Amino acid sequence: MPVRTRTACAAALVLGLTAGPLTGTVLAAPVPTADVRGTTPRNTVDPGTGRALRAAVEGLPDDDATAALIRVSGTDGDWRGSAGVRDLPSGRGALDGGRFRAGSTTKVVTAAVVLQLAAEGRVDLDGHVQTYLPGLLPEVFEPVNVRQLLTFTSGLRPGSSLGDVDGAGYERRYETLTPEEVVAASVARGPAFSPGERQTYGNIDYTVLGLLIEKVTGDSYEHQAAVRVLRPAGMRHTSFPGGPDPRIHGPHHRGYQKLADGRLVDATEWNMSDRWAAGDMISTTADLERLLHALFRGRLVPGPLLEKEMFTLPDVPGATMSAGLQRFDLNGRVLWLKSGARPGYSTLVAATRDLSRTLVYSVNATDAKGEGMNPVAERIVRAAFGG
After folding, report:
1. Interval 33-56: pLDDT, tens
2. SS3 of residue 235 by DSSP
3. Which residues of 156-172 are buried (b: 16+ CB within 10 A; e: fewer)?
4. Tens digits of per-residue pLDDT, 87-137?
């Protein structure tokens, strides 16, 4: 397949990370609260955890979120639940298998593809970007290796975007910005620091990794992600927008975002071309749970490489991010996770290393990437992991 031709419980947990054009109409107040309900008879976690999870999403929709989908699994039982509404005008109940924008959880997939290529000897993690993508970085840049892209230690500055995730780009949501344009804007700003000096989370490293994947394989990023990760993990309802397509295809929740001027707008349709391999994936909670299990069990990345790159932090002061994952300590429990946020959508995948407890949620948050963690999302994390 040829490479496609492009068209023109603290804030620390949140890193980053449809049909017809919208008119920008301010939406009405939330409709009456939808029931919280389990989606499977196999809600077998201990009663206290079950009650806490139900309480976490009770009362939706509210000012913080319009809906939530939750999947908890582990050695002591499973829990599935949904609450809120799929859209405010109709007030119809949440879709248990609804699709959503998964944001920066896309980086987990991108990292897995790169590490597979490394296992095959097609990519050297100590090899330089300047070798794989000649001409991309001018001489002012010191050599940047692939591992430094994976671990956000490259020193590259943010590239251009169509607007901040908090909804600042609402008026530009149908515009297109190609990965090449994103990277060119970063390069024009010069390096922020010497490679390996420190860790700064952002999208630019994974945008460059997407370009590297296409150059090494001679294939599109989307196809490589599908054949190497989505299909082996059984993620049948996960997809990528296909360039500038602003829609979410298939059953989904509509996402709503509060803008700086106080308006609550429908942010469902949004061209994610500026996020690409760093954050444009569309998925379901069931598929993201499959991703967690397949990845952590070594089915996607060979064991030694998995441990060394994804479950080990780089030797950089204050580092919390590995290749595609974040280490987070919650009440003495070590979690490996990745969050994602786009206007109207907040996502988290999190698990203990031994998969004794996993959590996946999609919250239709109205404050994507606010200053603090969304209150509904924070309650879900604390309920799932006893925080």
Report:
1. 555 665 444 578 999 999 999 999
2. coil
3. bbebebbbebbbebbee
4. 999 999 999 999 999 999 999 999 999 999 999 999 999 999 999 999 999
HEC per residue, 78-130: CEEEEEEECCCCCCCECCCCCEEEEECCHHHHHHHHHHHHHHCCCCCCCCEHH
pLDDT of residue 362 exceeding 80, the answer is yes
pLDDT band (50, 70, 90) for residue 387: low
Mean pLDDT of 365-373: 85
Say what the pLDDT of residue 40 is.
Answer: 46
Q: What's the start-to-end Cα distance of the chain, in Å?
A: 47
Write the burial class of residue 235 (CB in 10 Å: 0-12 exposed, 13-18 middle, 19+ buried): buried
Rounded to an integer, what distance in angstroms lies between the CA atom of residue 60 and that of residue 57? 6
Beta-carbon neighbour count of residue 24 at 10 Å? 11
Instruction: Note whether 385 and 49 are within 8 A (CB).
Output: no
Crossing angle between the packed helical segments 204-217 and 106-119, to the nearest 10 degrees:
40
DSSP state of 228: I
pLDDT at residue 338 tops 70: yes
Cα 42 from chain centroid (whole Å): 27
| Amino acid letter for position 173 | R
Cα separation, 210 vs 279, in Å, equals 11
**CA gyration radius for the chain?**
20
**What are the strands, taking DSSP E only, across 292-381?**
326-330, 333-342, 345-351, 357-365
Query: Both tokens of residue 316?
Result: 């950089």
The CA distance from 232 to 217, in Å, is: 18
Q: For helices 47-56 and 375-385, what crossing angle results, to 10°?
A: 180
Other CB atoms within a 10 A radius of the CB of residue 321 amount to: 21
| Cβ(173)–Cβ(271) below 8 Å | yes
Going from the N-terminus, what domains does the chain have, and what CATH number goes with each? 32-97+325-387 (no CATH), 98-282+310-323 (3.40.710.10)
